[in-house]
Design brief:
The complex is a heterodimer of chains A (about 220) and B (about 475).
Chain A (H helix, E strand, L loop, with lengths): L2 H23 L3 H25 L5 H26 L12 H18 L8 H23 L3 H21 L6 H16 L2 H10 L19
Helix pairs in contact in A: 1-2, 1-5, 1-6, 2-3, 2-6, 3-6, 3-7, 4-5, 5-6, 6-7
Chain B lengths: L3 H18 L3 H21 L15 H30 L5 H23 L3 H19 L5 H36 L8 H6 L6 H19 L7 H8 L2 H27 L7 H19 L6 H22 L1 H33 L10 H4 L1 H14 L6 H16 L1 H26 L15 H15 L3 H14 L1
Helix pairs in contact in B: 1-2, 1-4, 2-3, 2-4, 3-4, 3-10, 3-13, 4-5, 4-10, 5-6, 5-10, 6-8, 6-9, 8-10, 9-10, 9-12, 10-12, 10-13, 11-12, 11-17, 12-13, 13-15, 13-16, 13-18, 13-19, 15-17, 15-18, 16-17, 16-18
Classes of the chains: A mainly alpha (about 220), B mainly alpha (about 475).
Chain lengths: ~220, ~475
């Protein structure tokens, strides 16, 4: 196969990784959502490219889901939620953006080291997998460093972008479409759902740290 | 005529929309029970039919017993759930609309667990575990108290990160297998993976298992990935605590064991057994100490679930015919006893109107039948004879002592610590000054008694076919 095909695939996967870093340091919720939408669009381009390269037309479905659901519908509703809750100006971070970025760099190095043995199976898959694992780990990092329910959900969705990237990079993997649909259902449930609205209803905040008051064994009388 | 395998998946799937549409909660509960009974029938007929393998479905000795156990506990829990929920409606804690949702989700959970168990495909199994997680998240948050929402949120975040990592592990396994088995479905089938295990790339396979272990290990509730488990058990409706503890943890452990079978067949791969032994012992000792400080009765038994999952993981990690046998028996006994205990605890919490252990005491005076049931359950879960858990723990301790005396010391230490905590709490709850309300319980005692009698029978005399069967599976696990 020609080298150009892989270069384009790596360019798209690399852009997703850069956007993952951008997600880490954004300090306003609306910006976080916009960057996430951009990452989802890049993902759909990458998946569509894989569909071409691997000659696997069913992957177009996955690309379309990524584009429509995660690129437009979910960000739109998240923006509405954020505006309805009047939290579009604020963001809270547990640790500073500098140390977060450094940790992120460490995670990228870790993922490159981890997928090293893949080279013995297939040299081309290795880079894709390294990018995907880095996106996954950065999504995890984002979920840990953010305290706001909306940004935690964005972190989870970014993690899931990395999973779809990894799955579509594996040539001829069955059930990828089904799994991406399952993921979309999961996200739809959570985003439109229940949690953010319930949290608003109960606490007048979507800051997850507000939940900490209720954690653990109840020591006081009911 | 559809095959029983398909029926076990289709019956709950059909019940989901029906239950979501029916407004009367009594009718809903009845249909829930009927659907579970039909699923149980389909699962039992699996024993008497032939099962050709396909790329998507596999029935072997290992999963057939888990399918039947799942369908059985699912059915008895649906019976318990009917009376439990009638009380919740009465006191206004739940509304009929929420019950529709609850029943639909209950069937979604049964369907997803059956999919995960019968799947021959690692991707399909993953989808089953994911849907099962999602449906239980919904049910854990159903009371909508701050505690319930926190529990559901924590469960959702940790559970989805877990299944996300498990999916990455699944992709890696596919990549490894693709090299040997070619593109497409065969590279994801359990039977072919196990068969071609020696030819797979060991480094990558080991890497995949790390992700799978963290991913599915979170769902099993092994320490240190257990943080969601106590909250989810304590804050959801009690029938859900029963199925979570009794069934969903088993399904996740089943997934891990299947992957362990693949790695065991590969000479160059990491020693999965040693990792499982370590995690199992950590879970056991950690949970045993945590039992002492629990103030919430459902949280107490949630930690006890972590402890027993640790014991089962330890047993399978040790491997060999005897320890595997003990592990299988332990899984079964734990499912039956723990769900039975949750049935009793559910009624106790309802009659006393609280889950705080300090506010529950002297139930032997106020509710003698419940007290007997609860005591039998705690005695069984603490591993005292003549109940079946004594058999499995005794087998495990003796086989460990013969092979790794040092490990058996840690094992016995953990078991004794946990035993002490449970007996202390048993005294507080059953004896002592009677507190709280004394009005009679509206309870169905039958499911809990059925579970405990099965455990008692297993402790006194295991039927020969069952022994043969467990032996076969233990040999399969290697």
């Amino acid at each position: 196969m020609s080298k150009l095909l892989f270069d384009v695939a790596h360019l798209l996967a690399g852009s997703m990784l850069v956007l993952s870093f951008a997600l880490l340091y954004q300090d306003r919720i609306t910006a976080v959502i916009n960057v996430f939408a951009l990452q989802a669009i890049t993902l759909s381009l990458s998946v569509a490219w894989q569909a071409l390269v691997q000659d696997a037309p069913h992957l177009i479905v996955t690309a379309a889901i990524a584009l429509v659901v995660k690129g437009f519908v979910v960000p739109y509703f998240l923006q509405r939620i954020v505006r309805a809750l009047n939290i579009h100006r604020q963001i809270e971070q547990v640790i500073g953006s500098g140390s977060t970025m450094l940790t992120g760099l460490g995670l990228v190095a870790l993922s490159i080291l981890l997928v090293q043995p893949v080279g013995e199976v297939s040299i081309y898959v290795r880079e894709d997998l390294a990018f995907a694992l880095a996106v996954i780990l950065l999504g995890l990092l984002m979920m840990i460093t953010r305290r706001n329910a909306v940004t935690q959900v964005v972190g989870f969705m970014s993690l899931e972008n990395g999973l779809v990237l990894a799955a579509t990079g594996a040539k001829g993997m069955p059930l990828v479409v089904e799994v991406s649909v399952a993921f979309s259902v999961l996200i739809a449930f959570i985003v439109f759902g229940v949690f953010v609205f319930r949290m608003r209803e109960r606490f007048d905040t979507v800051d997850v740290s507000a939940l900490d008051r209720f954690r653990g064994d109840r020591k006081d009388a009911p | 005529m559809i095959a029983p395998v398909e029926a076990a998946v289709i019956i709950p799937a059909i019940a989901i929309p029906i239950l979501a549409l029916i407004s009367g909660y009594r009718l809903g509960a009845a249909i829930n029970m009927i659907a579970c009974a039909l699923t149980l029938t389909a699962a039992t007929t699996l024993l008497f039919t032939e099962h050709p393998r396909t790329d998507l479905v596999i029935i072997d000795d290992f999963n057939i017993f888990l399918i039947i156990l799942t369908a059985f506990v699912g059915f008895t829990t649906s019976v318990f759930s009917a009376t439990y929920l009638a009380h919740e409606i009465e006191i206004g804690r739940l509304t009929p609309t929420f019950l529709r949702f609850y029943h639909a989700m209950y069937q979604a959970l049964m369907c997803a667990m059956n999919v995960a168990l019968v799947a021959n495909n690692i991707g399909l199994m993953w989808v089953g575990v994911e849907v099962a997680t999602l449906s239980t998240v919904m049910m854990v948050g159903i009371y909508r108290t701050p505690e319930a929402i926190e529990a559901a949120w924590k469960y959702f975040i940790l559970g989805s990160v877990g299944i996300g990592l498990a999916f990455f592990g699944t992709i890696l396994v596919y990549l490894v297998a693709q090299d040997v088995l070619g593109d497409g479905l065969p590279a994801m089938s359990w039977d072919l993976l196990v068969k071609s295990a020696p030819m797979l790339d060991s480094k990558l396979l080991s890497l995949a298992f790390v992700f799978l272990l963290v991913g599915y290990g979170t769902k099993v509730g092994l320490a240190p990935f257990h943080a969601w488990l106590p909250d989810a058990h304590a804050e959801g409706p009690t029938p859900i605590s029963a199925v979570l503890s009794g069934l969903l943890l088993n399904v996740a452990l089943y997934a891990l064991l299947r992957f362990k079978m693949v790695l065991a067949g590969n000479p160059g791969a990491i020693d999965v057994g040693a990792i499982m032994v370590a995690l199992g012992l950590i879970s056991l000792v950690f949970a045993a100490f945590m039992l002492y400080r629990r103030r919430d009765i459902k949280r107490l038994f949630a930690y006890s679930s972590i402890e027993h999952m640790g014991i089962a993981a330890f047993a399978f990690g040790m491997g060999g015919p005897l320890a595997n046998f003990a592990g299988l028996l332990h899984m079964t006994m734990h499912s039956l006893i723990k769900s039975g205990i949750f049935f009793a605890v559910g009624h106790i919490a309802q009659v006393k109107g609280t889950q705080r252990i300090a506010a529950i005491s002297g139930i032997s005076v106020t509710h003698p039948v419940l007290a007997v049931l609860f005591s039998l359950g705690v005695i069984a879960i603490a591993g005292l004879p003549p109940f079946g858990m004594f058999t499995s723990e005794f087998m495990l301790v003796s086989s460990t002592f013969a092979r790794q005396p040092a490990l058996s010391v840690v094992l016995v230490f953990g078991l004794l610590i946990a035993f002490g905590a449970l007996i202390l709490r048993l005294q507080d709850v059953v004896f002592g000054e009677p507190t709280g309300k004394a009005h009679p319980a509206q309870a169905s005692y039958i499911p809990a008694y059925v579970h405990l009698s099965l455990v008692l029978i297993a402790g006194l005399w295991l039927p020969d076919p069952v022994v043969q069967w467990f032996r076969g599976v233990a040999a399969l696990l290697g």
